[in-house]
Structures are given as C-alpha cells and as structure tokens.
Amino acid sequence: MTDLFSKFDPLIEQRETLLETGITDPFNLVMEEVESPTVAICNGRRTILLGTYNYMGMTFDPDVIAAGKRALDEFGSGTTGSRVLNGTYGGHKACEEALKDFYAMDHAMVFSTGYQANLGVISTVAGKDDYIILDIDSHASIYDGCALGNAQIVPFRHNDIEALEKRLKRIPAGAGKLVVLEGVYSMLGTLRRSRRMVAVSKANGAMVLVDEAHSMGFIGENGRGVAEAQGVIDDVDFIIGTFSKSVGTVGGFCVSNHPKFEILRLVCRPYVFTASLPPSVVATAATSIRKLMDSADKRAHLWENSKRLHAGLRQLGFTLGTEEPQSAIIAVIMPDLEKGAAMWEALLHEGLYVNLARPPATPAGMTLLRCSLCALHSEEQVGEILGMFAAAGRATGCIS
Amino acid sequence: MSERSQIIAKVLELIEPFNKKGVEVSEATRFAQDLEWDSLTVLDFVANIEDEFDVIITMNMQAEIETVGQLVDALEKLKA
Prior knowledge:
The complex is a heterodimer of chains A (400) and B (80). Chain A is α/β, with parallel strands linked by helices and 400 residues long. In chain A, 40% of the residues lie in helices and 18% in strands. Chain A is built from 14 helices and 16 strands. Chain A has helices at residues 9-20, 62-75, 90-103, 114-125, 140-148, 161-170, 196-203, 226-229, 264-267, 269-272, 279-292, 296-316, 337-350, 379-396, and strands spanning 31-36, 39-42, 45-49, 107-111, 131-135, 152-156, 177-182, 184-185, 190-191, 207-211, 238-242, 252-256, 329-334, 352-353, 355-357, 367-372. In chain A, helix 3 (90-103) runs parallel beside helix 11, helix 12 (296-316) packs parallel to helix 14 and helix 13 packs across helix 14 (379-396). Chain A starts with 8 loop residues before the first helix and ends with a helix. Chain B has 80 residues and is mainly alpha-helical. Chain B has one domain: Non-ribosomal Peptide Synthetase Peptidyl Carrier Protein, Chain A (Orthogonal Bundle), CATH 1.10.1200.10. Chain B has helices spanning 3-15, 39-53, 59-62, 68-79. The relative contact order of chain B is 0.20. Chain A binds chain B through residues 131, 136, 146, 152-157, 163, 166-167, 170-171, 363-365, and chain B through 38-40, 43-44, 47, 50-51, 54-56, 58-60.
C-alpha cells in the first residue's frame, strides 16, 4: 500500500526540526481566556493581541453581544439547513439588508464564510471559456475559487497595471473576462496601487471583482473599502467581504448592482450545498455592520495606531513590508523561518501575539511577523508593543 | 531555420537570464526540477515569453508544461 501521507514528509520533517529546538509551536497556540478585542490569556500569561484582524474591535461591543444573545434565545443555536431550503431566517435577510445599506448596493448575498464567498462567486460567474485575470499575490480563497471552476486563469505581477492591461488585450475577442483584485493584500499589507486598474479592466470589457476583506470598516469615507477610497466603487461589479475581520464574527458576503445577481442563489454551489450561519451569528453581524457605518472616530484612531507602530518599528531597525503604512496590517520581514519562529516566541514571552506567516502563504518565500492593529489598541498599548519588539528583537539578534 | 528551431532559439535565449545555476538546457530540461524555478521566476519568465510571442499562456496550460520541449510545442500551437 502506498501511504498517501508520504507526500507530507518534507513538511513533517521541517516541523520536527523546528520543534526539536524546544520552541513553542507557532501554529498551535490556545487562547485560554479572552478579556477584550486586544487582550487574551495564552499559556497563563496576559497577552496583547496584535494578530487578530479584529480591526474595529467589535467582538465585545455590548450591542453586538446583546443581539447575539437575543437571537440565540429566540431562534435557537443553528439553522441546520441550506440558505435555499430551511436555512434562511429573518436574521439572514436582515443581515443582507444591512450590507445593502452599508455599501449602497442593490443586492447582497451572505455566505457561511468569506472563503466560501470567493470560492462560490469566482467559480460560478467565470465558466469554461471565460478568463480570470488575477494578481499573483491573491488570497488562497481566490485561487481555490479558480481551481473549483473551469475558467482559463491568467495571473499578472503584483499591482502591475501594465501587466494587467497587456494580458487583457491578448485575450481572444468576445471571451468573457473577470478581473479579480484585492483592496488590501493581506500578507504585506499593500494597498491596491492604482485606481486605474479598475478603469483599465472595464475599458477592456472585463467585469471586476474586488475583495475588500482587509479594508471594510475603516478605508474609504463610509468604510466601504479601497474601491470607495479610490473613487471607483461604481465601476466594480462585485465586492467580496467577510464578517471575520472588522465585523467581528464569522461569515462572508458578496454585494453587487448586477440586475441578474439573485440567480446566483440557485447556481452557486458553495452557497447552496452548505448550512447557513447560525441565527446568533447573523444577528451579531447585522448589528456590527450598522454600527460600523458610524465609526469615524474609531477609524481615525486605527490609522493613528498604524502610523505610530510603523514608524516605531522602522526606528528600531526592523525591515517592513511597506515603505509607509498603507493599511492596518504591518508586516515585519524576518530573514528566515528559524529566526522568525524565535522572534515570534520571544514576543510571546514578552506578552505579545502576532501572526507568524511563512511560505507558501507568503510571497517570494518570505517569513513574516504580521501585525494587525485594532481601533481599540490604546496609545499606551502601542507603546508597550514597541517596547516588546525592542526587547525580543535584541534577545534574538534580529536588531542590534 | 525552421519555425520550430526559431522558437527554440528564442526560448533558450529567454531562459538564460533566469538560469542562475548555469544548467545546460535542452528540450528535455524541466523547469521545476532542473532549473529549480519558484513561482515568481515562472511568472517573470512566462511574462517575457508572452511578450515575445504575443500570446497568453494560462495557468491551466502551464500546469501541463513541464519541460522546455513542451513549452515549444505549446508555442507552436498558439502561433499556428
């Protein structure tokens, strides 16, 4: 018998080598207690959270929690059904209404996760003879959406508008085209560079899908994301988003003004063949989305935090993923996985949690310590965070 | 020079800047195993090939192309 697991041997070996050094497993951390959006207890130690994507700190909002509890009491713990059978409750429709209001768009469709939203929409709208043109640094859910469908896949270099335009022009005339872009690319925290990417796509007859997972709630005047901030939201055909970041729960969605959008509910397999979100989850999501519409002060504070952390880390001598803070993600580039894991552990001992990201999730084989800020990190906490980076960086020899 | 040998000559020329290890390249050379290219190198190389021949080599096609010879075959078909 061929052991089907032998293909994982190199990874198993790499993990064993790393863990033999006695280092804490970076991919097995348990949050034993969670005090707030910015503090948890890990290994019995009070830990500042700097790697949660909880950008707007909505997870402990009293109105959000109250809505969830009420829905749990009134509608039960789960729907036990697909959105197209017995799994659409009033709460799901209310959540879609909240999204339509938030984005000022005609249609909204709620999926069980953000991953499924990308998987479903991309694999369904682009058929066999259509072309999907995507940024090479796209999220795994976008690639998996491509793999689930049958379209022709054409990647272009990260944020390179000329590469995008050249490819669009080479696609056979008459073929359907879907350009997939992200607002914020989550590994390095880079912003989609040019508003012209959307214009160029439209000028070449493509439909445009934008994933705004890492920008919802705090980029753009109304928090609608990079497409809003760049003034191109009216030219975007589909916006994909998630509830598991700024909204503070779990779930995904697509909003659109396409007149035939509603048919997706019947033909999109990752929407049809899975159970819908529990009533408590859609109740918390709807409440949170409506509160995010009116959060200008929190947005401003989040940007302050991002700027301060970026400047402080640079001053300490760390190499960062972007020259200037472009989003609420700040990626610290580590020389290799061993050093990255050592630095990650040293930070944890100091009382700070960040994400350790490594290949193949990262671009160009990089090891990253990815920090995501929260609007509820206090000024004092950002100061503490910088102190911890200084101590851990010196202890591991990452900075002098 | 036949059309195929012209394509081969051009492909070899475009491989050279990415042939960091100085591997001797023939039609049997494999991009991943012999040239040890990572995904970003593949992206840059494919972009150069696409620009030179004014074609699109989709990821679906790339998945079927392991060797230099297979790339030349694909280009012959695309240009036909």
